[in-house]
Amino acid sequence: DEESNTALAARECLRVVARANPSQAVPVVLEAAQAASASPDALDRAAAVHAVAFALSGAREAPGGWAVPLARALSDSAVWVRQAACEGAILLAEELKPSQQVTAGLELLLGTLMELLLREPNLELMEKAAMAAGAILQELSTDEAAAKVPQAAPAIFQAMTKVSHALAGAANGVNGSGENFETRETALEGGAALAAVARCLTSLASVTADHFGPWAPEAAKSLVLLFR
């Protein structure tokens, strides 16, 4: 999580370079990311994802297929790579100018993030995935987001259940042992993850409006449990 001054300077410079000539700079970064995706070193793969995110955020426009490196990274075996992809998705949802290519990429990432919510064991990363999904939903139109409801709503409900169970286990551990650091950490991380998932559900329901109606009863059932 700690970044060197060199990396920070390189990222800011990459943003400026990509903004100066996006049509030539961005393909170079995407090509490098494609090569790095095969590296056995997770740090290389994570660095490549960060490079893609910062180059595209500088350019503020994206070619077709721009989201493929991030979507691939969301399925990486290394937590650092998945984290980089989540952070990149949040950044790009906010920075990229609307276009057909950007929308197609955001839709790809949203679907991949929903899959990640279902299988991710790391609570901190679940929080980031939910934050990324929520950021993307805010950038989609009602019809675009509505097409994702059949996949997104059940994934969010299941994520809520999964995190709630982790929190319940942590609460039992703390109550039973008094000063158990690991269970307290789980409680803190789980609480943050659950809040992020709930906000993601808020974004989905808000953006999709009436299209969310059939899912409202299940959403209410899941949310009521959070008041305990």
By oligomeric state, this entry counts as single chain
> Strand percentage, roughly?
under 5%
Query: Looking at the structure, what is the overall shape?
Result: globular
Helix content: over 70%
Q: How would a textbook summarize the main sheet? A: none
Give Rg in angstroms: 19 Å
Could you name the ranges where pLDDT drops below 50 across 5 or more consecutive residues?
175-179
Pick out its properties.
11 helices; mainly alpha; globular; 0% strand; 228 residues
Describe the model:
Residues 175-179 have low confidence and may be disordered. It is globular, with a radius of gyration of 19 Å. It is built from eleven helices and no strands. Helix 3 packs parallel to helix 5, helix 6 runs antiparallel to helix 7 and helix 7 (123-137) packs parallel to helix 10 (181-208). It is mainly alpha-helical and 228 residues long.
Give a quick summary of the entry.
With 228 residues, the chain is an all-alpha fold. It has helices at residues 5-20, 22-36, 42-59, 68-73, 79-95, 100-119, 123-137, 142-146, 149-177, 181-208, 216-224.
